[in-house]
Amino acid sequence: MSSLHDFATWEPLLRLLRTAHTETLAVPGGHVAGRVGRGGWSVPLQPRRPQPGRALLVSDMQEEFDAIERVRDALTAAGATDIAFTVEIPPRGNAVLHLFDCGPAVDPGLGDAHPGALRLIEGALPEPWRRLPEAVPGARPAPSVDLELLERTLRERIPEAIGATEAEIAAAESRLGVTLPEEMKALYRVTRARWADWADDHGAAERVFDAVGFEVTSLDDVRVAESSSRPFRWEHAASQVAVTGPDAAVQDVVGSPGWIVIGDTGGGDRVAVDLTPGPRGHTGQIIVLDHERSVGAELFAESLTELVLDPERDWYHGRPRHEPPHAAWVNHQSIGSVEAAAHPELQVLSLGVLDGGPLSLAPVIGLPHLRTLSCYPGTLADPLEIAELTGLEFLELAPEEWRVLLDAGAVPRSLSAAAIRAYGDRDPRAIVAMANEILALWDRPPISETVVDGDLGPLP
User: Fold this and answer.
1) Alpha-carbon distance 40 to 110, whole Å?
2) What is the rounded distance in angstroms from the CA atom of residue 288 to the CA atom of residue 365?
3) Considering only CA atoms, which of 97, 207, 95 is closest in space to residue 156?
4) What is the CB neighbour count within 10 angstroms for residue 451?
5) What share of the chain is helix, strand, coil (3-state, %, to 5)?
6) How far apart are CA 431 and CA 421, in angstroms?
7) Does the chain have fewer CB atoms within 10 Å around its N or its C terminus?
């Protein structure tokens, strides 16, 4: 038994929660829930009001920070990253704390104690993360490629730079398993972009940025941006679509074995050389992987030569929205019906808040590519229609709809992952129990629950 399951570890936090939620906890069955992780926490404690005339200071919340840090230290010691909890504390002070460990088959929830996605198939990936770039016959470097001009311009702008040797370039190719394009070799022959070469001179790094148009990654740290380089949550990733149009310069994929990351925009967006361009792109074009997007990339320049000749160009062109027919949001502000959303290419269907009554899924039954269904509570006229959607890989429902499927033995066996959409302060114990029912259908490890008792004493 680690200190994570020791009542003393939680006692300071529980005292703060009792003070903040006295009325809620005084009601029979009243509970308070939250989540604590190494990277952050979601605990229902309101910030204290600062003294009149000044801003809120860290010291005003020091008691909360100390209580949370006590739990986070125990997480670290136990080798855990996250733990959810719910607690009952009646007025007499005998607290009952329920601790939930998601285990290897469940993602932590976002913002509350409810579990996140249930990973029903070990190692399964959402469809966009499985998609590889397609071959584009006839793809060639852009006409603007000029190796001599590129290298000469760079040497004129950063004459003091230390370039990579041919052996270092060959070593990078061997490590990556990719033959580097000639423009990329020309760049690194001028500067290998090692911080040690700049001797902590920020000015030297800035001169390279100004010369090229982005922060150049050291040749030693160049990486391939395959789909695994973009982490995901199933709830989000399952709603994404990756569709490359015939006029696209960049393929609409999560990652590619031909995306070689050579830098950063300075804002966390990766700059890459693209060896697997779209139908209207060029081999070796420069693209940007926006850190706020999970799929696709922006065209920065048709070649490194073009970019270096215009290093102040802007890569950002606005974030695209997935439009029908591949993804459809049926709600009172978007598509008004399931019939209107039904299309042979539909992959993702989300039912949201509606003006009218619940909807039937009959119009989308039999669609060949429908893989994701997410439904706001009360939007389904007959949840059992879901059993006829035989190609689903992800399903997100409210507890009431899940109950119908579970009781009827109608949970689709095609699922790779699932989620329970529970809003508000619903008791996590009930949601965890339902999650474990779903996990058991695939013989997956359940969410474990540990009950810890302790006495906080009666309220003063």
Assistant:
1) 11
2) 38
3) 207
4) 9
5) 30, 20, 50
6) 9
7) C
Which tens digit of pLDDT belongs to each residue from 260-313?
Answer: 999 999 999 999 999 999 999 999 999 999 999 999 999 999 999 999 999 999
Q: Could you tell me the CA-to-CA distances from 226 to 131, 259, 276, 279, 315 in Å, in that order?
A: 10, 7, 12, 20, 21
Tokens at 63, concatenated: 């008691």
Residues in CB range of 331: below 8 A, 6 or more apart: 350, 351, 352, 353, 354, 376
Beta strand segments in 40-140, E: 40-42, 82-88, 94-101, 118-119
Q: Which amino acid is at 173?
A: E
Which of 310, 268, 262 shows the shortest CA–CA distance to 286? 262
Nearest to residue 446, comparing CAs of 125, 204, 195, 105?
105
The DSSP annotation for 268-314 comes to SPEEEEESS--TT--TTEEEEE-TT-SS--EEEESSHHHHHHSTT--
**DSSP 8-class letter at 250:** S
Give yes or no for a cis peptide into 325 (omega within 30° of 0).
yes
Among the listed residues 214, 222, 188, the one whose alpha carbon sits nearest the alpha carbon of residue 286: 214
Q: For position 56, what pLDDT does the model report?
A: 67
- With beta carbons less than 8 A apart as the criterion, state whether 53 and 131 touch: no
3-state secondary structure of 332: coil
Q: What is the DSSP letter of 3?
A: G
| 425 CA to centre of own chain | 24
- Cα(436)–Cα(62) distance, integer angstroms: 37
Nearest to 235 by CA among 370, 390, 393: 393
Checking phi first, is residue 123 left (phi over 0); if not, alpha (psi -120 to 50) or beta? left
Write out the two tokens for 399.
């507890």
pLDDT by residue (tens digit) across 137-187? Answer: 999 999 999 999 999 999 999 999 999 999 999 999 999 999 999 999 999
Cα–Cα distance between 63 and 81 in angstroms, integer? 22
